[in-house]
Amino acid sequence: MVDLIALLLLLSGCFFIFAGTVGMLRLPDVFCRLHAMTKADNLGLLLICMALAVMDGRLRTTLLLLLIWLLALLASTVSAHLIARHARGQSQ
Amino acid sequence: MTEQLLPWAIVFLLLNLAAGLWRAWRGPTAGDRLLTTLLFGTTSVALLLLMAEWMALPGIRHVALMLVLLATIISLAFFGMPEAGNRARESDDG
Amino acid sequence: MNVGLLIDLLLGLILVGLAVQVVLGRQLFRSIVFYVAFGLAMALVWARLGAVDLALADAALGAGLTGALMLAAFRRLIKLDPAQAVTSGSAHTALALLIAVLAAGMVATIGLTAMALESQPGAAGVAVFEALPATGLGNPVTGVLLAWRGFDTLVEMVVLLTAFLGARVVADEGWAPRSTVASFDLPLLRTLVAAIVPLASLIALYLLWIGSDQPGGAFQAGSVLAAAGVLLLLTGQLLPAPTSSAWLRLGLVLGVAGIGLLVLLPMLSGRPPLAWLGRGALLLAESMMMVSIGCTLTLMFAGAPGLKDGTR
Question: How many structural domains are present in chain B?
Fold first, then answer.
């Protein structure tokens, strides 16, 4: 049962990262690509972290993975904001 | 059963990385290329975490922690960089 | 088809593709971005090979620090000479590729031969694992770096200090790199610095502590501190200053002093140099090295002899 949950989480995580990559390659504008990248990739990372936490089972690992995901969220947010501001500055 | 799927997830994410490099190559703006470093960063973290579980080396999780801690440095170093030909952002400070 | 082999092939292809793009690419900025990606891919390769200590150091230094350094250098370069942003096709491409192929062939030959050799009973690697329990350490890398090859580590710290002094000698005194983000009062950045810098310090101390038994140690911790310092510099919380304070100078030489004491102190009690002093002495020397590495790399990124507070 636990294995099934982990499997579902892992597969959906990979799907969302794939969706982010497709968005980055196919969307027309740098701003649209930022949307695809940050949102889809972070969700995919969260699902993968959850899958790994379920597979490992220990509290320590789960907390470490949670910390990693939160920091990834912070990094993506600030980076996307900086890139977007720069891009907007250039297009004016 | 999921353990056997882990290396295939790693393969899949590596293919995503390789595909994302196309955007770095193509551009057309510098922001697009920075996007690729963002993609590389997040996907690398996922890859490292998967490897930590698959190879049973918990130390690799610390590598992922460090990577994600320092991921903003590249975007910060890039910010304010004038695109060749445009006015420099530095003229904004008072 | 073995999945591990497929992963290794993909990683190798990505690495080589990135390297080719970095060296032969026409646009400088694109090559820099590929170089950052190359650093990240290297960290992945080290992790795949199981060399976690290397992956830790490479993630901080190769991916973060050198990328930021290159971008800062690029920014100055195109301000001085905008034509440099696009390089014409190198006339030596064919020669470069030939040398690359030959070098790769040589490395492959040496590597395959080394892997095919059986490990001899008297070999250094085997001896390390046999002597490790006597020291009470759990991490063989720390054992080699500090317990048995401490002289090499002493020389490395001296090299780091010398590199810093050399950078000071050749530095252009008329120009100091400015943080471009400092003029933008983005509330996001204050949150970022407030969250990351204390966490980075904590993680550095954590890596230092676990380095005795798990992958980690002084170099990894020092590189995390250096990256935090670079973050402070980039966001304008720290600014380059023309003179250095006594504390900074102390921090620069602390590493050499620490490992030097570790190496030479046993001689006071009549034992040969580098005799085992215990985990406590090791940790003390490592913390001194960590401070030194952090200070040196941060100052080298700042391009100035000192730092001052930028929040005022």
Answer: 1
